[in-house]
Automatic annotation (TrEMBL):
Source organism: Desulfurococcus amylolyticus DSM 16532
Molecular function as annotated in GO: hydrolase activity; transferase activity
Keywords from the named record: Hydrolase
Name of the protein: Metal-dependent hydrolase, beta-lactamase superfamily II
Domain Metallo-beta-lactamase residues, every copy: 28-261
Length: 290
């Protein structure tokens, strides 16, 4: 595999779990700051998701010695508030006044709700034009998009492409002018970084199923996935689904699993049993160096 980056650093700015940290703020959400170093010392920074509370994300960023002005690209995994709402506050606090590319999956701007246990809006609170007025330059894609050499989003995983055991019962809905229809979260995108050890796959909530996402990446890139990092959305999964998911990730050659957010305690225990020291529970302020 071609070596694009001499070092990759990942800082967890938002996760549901605080870990044993001092002064950092946890929240229901995901936000990772990813810094890529090239041999010559140049670096590029990517923000993957923005959590719900941008204020808490920025607070953690400062404690880690990171600067929002350093971010070159933002990738939003999907349109749920716990991943995208923090964007507006972070844009407000950005003093650099150049436009910033914000990569999202096609369908990101649909209005979405859940019905259980009551009607709840799932979208972030900000309207698109407000984010745009603060410099967000949205790029919507359903196909693979290379952001820069060795960094890309693999495109969406269609419902039909998913592994059978990851096809869930309807839980979310898209609200349109003629009523509402099931939202299969087809617009969720992952982020893929090519490291010298293999591909790193960042997943926000893994609504399409983490095994389906990783299988798509392996087929599309023709390379092994070294690590998956993110929320695995197994919090309500039964034991059989958890078992089959871990089996499939093993079969696909995944070496290291960093799981947090919506993975759930049962799945974390199962990952730990199979992966041992190669399983890491994500917490706010966790730093990973690859
Ligand atoms: Fe979600
Ligand atoms: Fe989530």
């Amino acid at each position: 595999m071609e070596k694009y980056y001499s070092r990759i650093e990942i800082f967890v700015l938002a996760d549901d779990y605080a870990g044993m940290t001092k002064g950092f703020l946890a929240q229901h959400g995901v936000s990772y700051f990813i810094r890529l170093y090239r041999d010559q010392g140049e670096k590029t920074s990517i923000l993957f998701d923005t959590g719900y509370d941008g204020k808490a994300v920025l607070h953690n960023m400062k404690l880690l010695g990171l600067d929002i002005n350093e971010v070159d690209y933002i990738v939003l995994s999907h349109n749920h508030y716990d991943h995208a709402n923090g964007l507006l506050y972070l844009l407000e606090k950005r003093t650099k006044k150049t436009a910033i590319p914000v990569i999202v999956g096609k369908g990101f701007f649909e209005k979405t709700i859940t019905l259980k246990p009551m009607v709840r809006i799932l979208n972030p609170d900000w309207p698109r034009n407000q984010a745009e007025s603060l410099g967000a330059w949205f790029i919507e894609t359903s196909e693979k998009l290379e952001i820069m050499p060795g960094v890309s989003v693999p495109g969406i995983v269609k419902y039909d492409e998913r592994l059978e055991f990851e096809k869930e019962a309807p839980e979310y809905y898209i609200v349109g002018e003629n009523g509402f229809k099931t939202d299969f979260l087809e617009h969720e995108i992952a982020l893929v970084i090519e490291s010298s050890r293999g591909l790193l796959v960042f997943a926000g909530c893994s609504h399409p199923g983490i095994a389906s996402i990783v299988e798509k990446v392996v087929n599309l890139y023709g390379r092994k996935v070294y690590s998956v990092i993110g929320g695995m959305h197994l919090i309500n999964a039964d034991e059989l689904r958890i078992k089959r998911t871990i089996q499939k990730l093993r079969e696909l050659g995944v070496v290291k699993v960093f799981a947090g957010h919506c993975t759930g305690l049962k799945a974390e225990k199962a990952f730990l049993e199979v992966y041992g020291d190669d399983f890491v529970r994500i917490h706010t302020a966790l730093q990973i160096s690859i």
